[in-house]
Amino acid sequence: MYGYGYSPFVKNTVGTSGAVPVNTVTPVISGSLVVGSTLTCSTGTWTGTLPITYSYQWYSNYYPISGQTNNTYVTQNSDVGIFVYCSITATNAFGSATIGSSAVTPTWEADAQAFITAASITNPTQQSAINTLVTDLKGYGVWTKMKALYPFVGGTASQHKFNLKDPRDLDAAFRLVFNGGGTHSSTGYLPNGTNGYADTKLVPSTDFTTYNHHISLYSRTNNQRDSWNGAYMNSGQAERFVLRSTDAPSGAFYYWSYGWAASSIFTANTDSRGLFLVTNRSASDREAYRNGTTLATNTFNMSAYIPVSISLFIGSNNVNGSPSTYDNKEIAFGSLGDGLTDTEAANFYTAVQTFQTTLSRNV
Q1: Tens of pLDDT along 83-136?
Q2: Distance, CA of 313 to CA of 200 (rounded, Å)
Q3: pLDDT in tens, 13-31
Q4: Top-level CATH class of 10-100?
Q5: What is the 3-state secondary structure (H, E, C) of the chain?
Q6: How many CB atoms neighbour CB 259 within 10 A?
Q7: Alpha-carbon span 136 to 130, nearest angstrom
Q8: What residues does CATH 2.60.40 cover in the chain?
Q9: CATH number for the domain formed by residue range(s) 110-358
Q10: pLDDT digits (tens, 9 = 90+) for 201-229
Q11: Delimiting residues of CATH 2.60.120.200 domain(s) in the chain
């Protein structure tokens, strides 16, 4: 057996004379253990007649990894939970010797693992998609701006309810509470349009920062809803987020913030599929995006700001605590959090679309 623990194996090939390389300090692996990160193997310390050259071979559970013969290795999904190590062969004019490094065990990113565990995500592709999503959002610097992230991955209501940012089964963690009818599948959550909705438990007056917040939803459905019957994420008539594809007077993406008609964003939109996002960055800076591209802006000064004191619903209006009017677009992602800049909105879309593409449900 070789390859695990300390000095996993030593092999010497002795020439006719001279000092063959001899290892005196075992090589070690450095780098992040999060899947998708790069590991680097040192040469260790060797004695012997100079010059000495080094070659490498990476192993996973004692088996050589084809083509991985550099001193670096990018960990793969298949490495999670098993050990990885590298062998180093030192060669000079008088022979060669081979020794294995210490072994390491790659893992999912910690926040991704917490969600994977809470939501009982066992599918490797889904696990990988979540892991990449978390690392991408952190890399783009927007993870800390999120209060709730709903990836709708796994295929059941008990899996879809969890907030990736805080995967506790608590109202305080903004996990979703589903009501009425709807379909849960590997492609997302589809309210039935008659009585189905999800309560986020997030109340703008207490959980959003004044003038600094965003709402986003990823729709996989292009359909028509009658006037005021296209509510997608809504808290009364004060935090309305509506998608319509063919509605009078024209297809529209509509956002009505905190009950102030003058602060609404209304723009023609002929397709209700994709990632729709509205953000408030200040009292007079609001912007709407579809797939990371600006649709419209509004600079009305909301100096008379009135906070909303009821929670946001997905798939229905929330009118004084009760659902009213329903939507039937399949939702494959949602987020709630702080306001995003143009660059952050574009990067956020890139991360979400990568996630959807990995799961083969991108639109």
Answers
A1: 999 999 999 999 999 999 999 999 999 999 999 999 999 999 999 999 999 999
A2: 6
A3: 544 568 999 999 999 999 9
A4: mainly beta
A5: CCCCCCCCCEEEEECCCCCCCEEEECCCEECCCECCCEEEECCCEEECCCCCEEEEEEEECCEECCCCCCCEEECCHHHCCCCEEEEEEEEECCEEEEEECCCECCECCHHHHHHHHHCCCCCHHHHHHHHHHHHHHHHCCCHHHEEEEECCCCCCHHHHCCCCCCCCCCHHHCCCEEECCEEEECCEEEECCCCCEEECCCCHHHHCECCEEEEEEEECCCCCCCCCCCEEEEECCCEEEEEECCCCCCCEEEEEECCCHHHCEEEECCCCCEEEEEEEEECCEEEEEECCEEEEEECCCCCCCCCCCCCCEECEEEECCEEEEECCCCEEEEEEECCCCHHHHHHHHHHHHHHHHHCCCCC
A6: 16
A7: 10
A8: 10-100
A9: 2.60.120.200
A10: 998 888 988 788 898 999 998 876 543 33
A11: 110-358
